[in-house]
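Exam review. A common question shows you a sequence with its structure tokens and asks you to describe the fold in words. Practice with the pair below. Do the first one on your own.
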Amino acid sequence: MDYECRCSEDANGRPNAILFNILSQAPNSEPSRSNLNYLPSSRCHCEMRRTVRLKTPGDTCQVASSILVKTIYFMKSLPAFQQLPPKDQLVLLQSCWAPLFILGLAQEHVSFEVEDMPAPSMLKRILLNRQDVKEPDREQPTLAGVQKLKSCLKKFWSLDLSPKEYAYLKGTMIFNPDVPGLRAVLFIEGLQQEAQHALKEVLALLHPEDHGRFARLLLAGSSLKTITPGLVTELFFRPIISQAHLLDLLADMLFSR
């Protein structure tokens, strides 16, 4: 979708004075080379809303698919998860698959680049203007969303988690009793407490002097919830699943023998 830039308007939505626009574009107003590091924080808001796609979808989607399979297998391999009613398993899957997948990206140090989404062709614009032609209403990945995702990844890379820390942190995120629609709420709450206790024990062995690491890990884990499943789906999996519903595919993987 194309966005009309309104960054040249004042607070009341009126275009800024012509003289101001001319002066702001003068050569003397350009930032010096020493200030180039500060450009990302002052980007035009319209630029941050640009729709983007993976620059190398073939390679990145293949890695993403492998991580997603490992994520579902991890959930299936937990005996406590298998003891839950199938409906609760499905509800928890829907709630946590995206954060777990992002943890997988962090654990395997997956990096990726994006590029602008090309504008639709004139023929497609004409077809989409017809009332009998409808396109699925999906969330489109934006530059702002991708930057938020990369910020989460960098946060986990800076924490330098061990495989056991990743595993127990995933457990605390899978067994979330606050997810609406659960039946075995008390059982799931107990499982979350067990996962948190196990994570604390691992941290006590690996980082005995870092008493605030447990809180930092939980805080970093909560930040993953700011990344929408729609962004993850459209960015990493839409190129390979086409019109299929990803959650249906995940459910098939979860309940397959």
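Now try the second one, then compare your answer with the model answer below.
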Amino acid sequence: MSYRKTLKLICGFAGGSAVLFAAVTAADSRGYFGEQRGEAAGRWSRFTVLQAAQPAWTPASHTPTPTGHAWDFNWDKRDPSALTNGKKKKESATEDPSSEQDNGKPKATRNILLIRHSQYNLSGNNDKERILTPLGREQAELTGQRLAALGLKYDVLIHSSMTRATETANIISKHLPGSPGVDLVSCDLLREGAPIEPVPPVTHWKPDAVQYHEDGARIEAAFRRYIHRADPTQKEDSYEIIVCHANVIRYFVCRALQFPPEGWLRMGLNNGSITWLTIRPSGRVALRTMGDSGFMPPDKLTRT
């Protein structure tokens, strides 16, 4: 084996100079490099000079430090330990002091599938004219087929009251299993809007302060209504579909994961895509998928 190949192999196994020194010393004493002692020593001296010029590596210097606040387990104001408000009920001699609190703990997991509406007519003058395009209707069919293929038992389908979201929800609902079918619920809180001024700002979209003030309060109200841990009375895990808009979904994800909400515009979502949030009884939140649209053929993908 040549000197260069051997040295490359050794460096691949260990970046530490101590291990490399031991390997090279052993190889030199046995003549593995196929060179005279003096010749090998000269090469080793040049190599040690190069090694010495490199900065020392330590784990501490390459480990990122945590930023931000610790996870707030009472982010949805439904942590059982925080619901007593400091009030204590009189306990009987036979009552288990922990039984009441245990009965008040959520036991089920909520799965919330956030669907962005399909492509719609951008040239419409008002909401009623901004109906789905033929491609948008195809996208909704594909999304409905995907949701059906997951084999889940859906509990409810909530949708924004805007035309494009309502049409998308109606098409999706035809594919969902169950009899007589999944209930459809329309909600004005889920309408598209400007949740919070994005950071960094963008030049192509600049709502005024009043719109952020009004839309932000409404979208935050929607988040508080729909994104939270299960009620203690819920016995089984649930799967809920919410068909709405890109800005709403992106804001929901940031809020649920306790990321800075002003970063919502850094994420992109295709039409008809699926974003899946899981909320555990403990208040832990997981993002299972973000903007999944891999079930659509490439020529059907849009982001308008």
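Model answer, second protein: Residues 80 and 264 are 30 Å apart (CA to CA). The two ends are 59 Å apart (CA to CA). Full marks require stating both points clearly.
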